[in-house]
Amino acid sequence: MPKYSIIIPVYNVEKYIKKCLDSVFSQTDKDFEVIVVNDGTKDNSMDIVKKYDVKIINQKNQGLSAARNRGVKEAVGDYLIFLDSDDYWEKNILKELSKSLKNNPDLVRFQIKQVDENDNSTCYNEEGFKGFSGEEAFNKIVKYHFVENAWAYCIKRKYWLENKFQFAKGKIHEDFGIIPLVIIKATKVNSIEYVGYNYFQRSNSIMNNGDYEKTKRKVEDFYQHYLYLRDEINKTNLNKQVFMSFIANSLIIKITELNNPLYKEYKARLKRDGVFNDILDDTITRKLKKLVMKVSPKLFKKVGRR
After folding, report:
1. Facing residues of 191 across strands?
2. Tens-place pLDDT, residues 39-74
3. Residues 22 and 78 in one domain
4. Rounded to the nearest 10 degrees, what angle do helices 212-233 and 241-255 cross at?
5. In this predicted model, what pLDDT tens digit does every residue of 152-176 receive, in sequence order?
6. Which residue, 143, 174, 201, sits at the end of a domain?
7. What CATH number has the domain bearing residue 87?
8. Domain count for the chain
9. 202: three-class secondary structure by DSSP
């Protein structure tokens, strides 16, 4: 049984998939399986994939969530890693990760470097930690970049299955809809200091195009994820103040992408659903920011989120 199951959904990524797979197969730690889920790709991506020693799963196009869920179903490794097909690793990421598994964590966070199409990069050197509870880890990670991105974590497969975690099928921002729960419900969480994950920011990705119809869909999906997370965390006995403040803050910022009159409709909906009540106001600074947020989320976004 391999230590790692690396799940890579593929859809129209012929420009990027070779670099992604090369980065996996050049790892110094070889104890892994690679599961490529062909999500109905229309280009030549799979011609490239077939040159590698990977397990291929073909399905009709159902989106990233369904592809990842299918990958989990087929996985046999001790740990799950979700690798986006346009991203790539440094060659020692699994070696460094393996060192961090000695205390049997449910979850390990990677260090991330963001790279754009012009090879400009930003390295996020965030403090590592070891043996934190899920609540402790969440309270720390929430101050980092890329908090809810699934590709930023290595997750124990048994932990994932026992909690019946799944990505919400057919929704955008699928990571936001589950990863915060994955973090806070964990018994033990580590974070490695090795910068090994290269996140490639494409200018034409679904998260960055200027299509306002997609923007409206993104906001509504984000809202539905928020409601799900709020319901799920309220079923637990965990200290949820920071968790609730984070997801509420994220949602409030998200609606600022809308134009009037839809923006005003969502702002009224936030008030009706008590979203503003979830924002922490335990210091004078937070009280002031909460007041600004309630009056004008768009002004709050300009002033600063923290």
Report:
1. 109, 129
2. 999 999 999 999 999 999 999 999 999 999 999 999
3. yes
4. 170
5. 999 999 999 999 999 999 999 999 9
6. 201
7. 3.90.550.10
8. 2
9. coil
